[in-house]
Design brief:
Layout: E1 7-12, E2 15-17, H1 29-40, E3 44-49, E4 66-68, E5 74-76, H2 83-87, E6 92-96, H3 103-120, E7 125-129, H4 131-135, H5 137-141, E8 147-149, H6 153-164, E9 177-181, E10 184-187, H7 212-218, E11 232-235, E12 238-239, H8 249-253, H9 257-260, E13 267-268, H10 271-283, E14 288-291, H11 300-310, E15 316-319, E16 329-332, E17 335-338, H12 340-349, E18 351-359, H13 363-369, H14 381-390, E19 394-400, H15 408-423, E20 428-432, H16 441-447, H17 450-458, H18 460-464, H19 481-495, H20 498-505
Parallel strand pairs: 1-3, 1-6, 6-7, 7-8, 11-14, 14-15, 15-18, 18-19, 19-20
Antiparallel strand pairs: 2-5, 4-5, 8-9, 9-10, 12-13, 16-17
Helix pairs in contact: 1-6, 10-11, 11-12
């Protein structure tokens, strides 16, 4: 045990979203890995998902507690007034900031922690990590955070506790962090290490700390179709991606390797380790697992090898996070056709839901922003949909409309592409506006304009509160912003079934209770 017996709280804050957006609980794997690392090293650590509160809480006091904020968004989750009593029990408060729209909520955590520290004359160190915190580190450090982790956090969190437990903490000995000293931001480096593509040394994610029974009751996963009464959690078989899509954080992480390390590059868990993670989930009663890999389909042979380690009786999988569609086809005699053997392998280990990132019908947009990773004219998208349906896999897709230089004609072409796929059996479509999120190359493009950069930094929360794929764009687009916002909704309503749209709208934040039973 550490000599100061430091206690750590990993908290995922209450959320804020637009009224027409979906209320979902937290429970992401990042905090679970950090918690697992702390516990493996004998450090007392707890987890709190503030969207639902502690286990046993009345959800009407947490998840269904809806408050309209001054910015027009709706806050849901535990009241901020409850947190001081909780925070005073801990020496370190840690968050993982992934979504830019939640920036304000992370700042709220730091503000409360600092107030508790002052009122109780107790040192509380506030730290954060995740792509949003990394990209906005100067703002986080100016809003109550003491340390920002810049690389994968499982090692960083232990180094932080080690230093805070010492008689003379020295943050320069913590690898790849940002902190302030005498008003100046210090960024630490790391001792060069031999690169590895394997992750087996990373501790098991502490998913047992999640309120899994509460999530089961809600039946609302992070993405994908509602699953009422199903106990679910996430799994990672790999991290990183071989592509460099400009709207994805990995594109910029690869540009900043000297500062961030290998965080965006492909690394993987062994089949044996993946099997152990599955076993741990099953023992907790989990019957649906969501892949949270950045790109599960980066190597067909590897996934085929993983299949027996994934397969369990009464266990199914969803892949709604990321997949590379070119691996669903094979080229024979110069022609692409669905790789039905591979697709049947997916169905064989239990994949029941797959979100297909067709992205766009425009080859120009695909090549410019999405690494040219799929050719909708050559790679038989209709055949892919039909083969997935034949294998018993429910298939949806998301499309990006409104790239900064995309024409209305190009957007309509993508809409018609989606319409064709729906007519051929695709279960559901969604439309998103590409957002230049902090940490992406698209964001860096916007920040290259001095006037925009100045306005963003001076009005951070006005931007962050509204940086959402279904919201009004915060940066210039070729097509009028209001036209894009309307198209996202109108296309969705037009192309999807009424049954689907009604069931998903029932979990909008404007609803204080579930009006309709979910269908899956």
């Amino acid at each position: 045990m550490y000599k100061k017996n430091l206690k750590v709280l990993i908290i995922e804050p209450a959320n804020q979203l637009q009224a027409n957006d979906k209320a979902r609980p937290n429970g992401t794997l990042g905090p679970a890995y950090i918690l697992g690392s702390l516990r493996r090293n004998g450090i007392e650590a707890d987890y709190l998902d503030a969207t639902v509160g502690e286990i046993g809480r009345d959800l009407n006091e947490t998840f269904y507690l809806r408050t309209e904020m001054e910015n027009g968004n709706i806050r849901y989750g535990m009241s901020a007034d409850e947190l001081p009593e909780i925070f005073c029990k801990y020496d370190i408060i840690a968050t993982s900031s992934i979504f830019t729209v939640q920036t304000r909520m992370h700042f709220e955590m730091a503000k409360i922690a600092k107030k508790v520290s002052k009122e109780n004359n107790k040192k509380i160190t506030v730290i954060s990590g995740g792509v949003n915190a990394r990209a906005l580190r100067e703002h986080f450090l100016s809003n109550g955070f003491d340390i920002i982790a810049l690389a994968e956090g499982e090692t960083t969190i232990i180094q932080i506790v080690d230093q805070l437990s010492s008689d003379k903490p020295d943050f320069t000995k913590i690898e790849r962090i940002a902190y302030r000293e005498n008003g100046k931001t210090i960024i630490t480096g790391a001792t060069p290490k031999k690169g590895t593509k394997f992750l087996d040394g990373i501790p098991y994610p502490a998913i047992e700390a999640f309120p899994l029974e509460v999530y089961q009751k809600l039946g609302i996963p992070h993405a994908g179709y509602p699953i009422p009464g199903t106990m679910f959690t996430g799994i990672q078989t790999s991290r990183g991606c071989q592509d460099r899509c400009s709207f994805c954080h990995i594109s910029q992480e690869k540009e900043e390797r000297d500062m961030l390390g290998n965080i965006g590059f492909l690394k993987m868990f062994s089949p044996e380790r993946v099997g152990e993670d599955v076993d741990r989930a099953v023992k907790l009663g989990v019957t649906r697992i969501y892949f949270e890999d950045d790109n599960l389909f980066f190597n067909k042979k590897r996934l085929v090898k993983l299949a027996p380690y994934l397969k369990r009786d009464n266990l199914s999988y969803s892949l709604v996070n990321g997949a590379n569609l070119r691996f669903l086809v094979e080229k024979t005699n110069g022609m692409y056709k669905p790789d039905e053997e591979f697709i049947n392998t997916l169905a064989g280990f239990g994949l029941r839901e797959l979100t297909l990132p067709f992205e766009t019908k425009s080859q120009e947009m695909m090549k410019k922003y999405a690494t040219g990773k799929f050719d909708p004219d050559e790679m038989d998208p209709v055949g892919i949909v039909k083969s997935l349906k034949k294998a018993g896999i429910r298939a949806g897709s998301n499309f990006l409309i409104g790239f900064r230089d995309e024409s209305w004609e190009s957007i309509l072409e993508t809409k018609n592409f989606a319409k064709t796929l729906i007519s051929e059996g695709l279960d559901q479509v969604g439309f998103h506006i590409p957002v230049p999120y902090p940490g992406t190359k698209d964001f860096e493009f916007q920040m290259s304009k001095s006037d925009i950069k100045r306005d963003f930094n001076e009005n951070l929360l006005e931007y962050a509160d509204n940086m959402h794929v279904r919201g009004t764009p915060m940066f210039e687009t070729k097509v009028q912003k209001e036209t894009l916002t309307s198209a996202v909704k109108d296309f969705w309503l037009e192309l999807n079934s009424e049954e689907y749209t009604k069931s998903t709208q029932s979990i909008n934040l404007s609803k204080t209770q579930i009006d309709l039973p979910y269908e899956h």
